[in-house]
Amino acid sequence: MQRWSLGLAALLVVGPALAGVQCGAPPPDTFVIAGQSNATGFSSLPRGATSSYAHRLHSLSYREYLVWGGIWKLANDPLHDPFRHTASAWPWMAEWWHENRGRPLEFVAAAEPATCLVAGAAEWEASVGSLYQRMLAWVANADVGERLDAVLWYQGECDAAYGVAPEVYQAALEDLADAVVLDLGVPLVVAPVSLGLAVDGTPSPVMQPIHDATLAAAAAHPDVWPGPSTDDLALEPDELHVHAVDELGVRWGEAVAAVLDSL
Fold this sequence. Notes:
Helices cover 36% and strands 17% of the residues. By secondary structure, the chain is an alpha/beta fold. It has a 7-stranded mixed beta sheet, with helices on both faces. It has a two-stranded antiparallel ribbon with strand order 1-2. Helix 2 runs parallel beside helix 3 (90-101), helix 3 crosses helix 8 and helix 6 packs across helix 7. Mean pLDDT is 81; it is low at 1-23 and 49-61.
């Protein structure tokens, strides 16, 4: 048993199920974050400090499972790497969720930058990929049980850079959804890679095939659900990573809520 004191708010932890949740608060909704760098968050915005601070003092609705150390903790941005100085969408999703769903959120942060579903080392390949296997181990270690609601997937830039054919990516994404349902019993909610805009205002030709393949999987497979679109959101100067993660967090909340309400 551990106890933290945060100003006037105290947290009583009795196993992971109650970590970071005030007495009398509803049980948390739990999500796995999977994919690559736009899932971990690479925005130069301030790191969700206002949102995280508000949740610490009031709703205490935003916590993260860290496998290094194997403990639940109140989350600080960035979730996936405490040594990075970048912001993610997840504090803003937590804020939206608390305001609109009235429930706490918790995340198992399993994404990893520069990783592929099909190409390269295929770290996310269904059932056998190294990161897929790590994700399952982290979920098991987190002991979330039936609280797990969905896997939130934002990936594809790596496969786009390798020129993976859209039909190959779509099939691999549908296989991933099958494995997630089999192993975790939850749907896969997918955010298509951002098309961004080239200087001439046209969508990115590199990202278009994987973007469209992601949407095709969501249209074709019963356990692949469409997540937020980022095509109109501001990108970082690298024209790859989403800058406007505050708006992205709101969109994640809206999209995931719609999925859960449809199940």
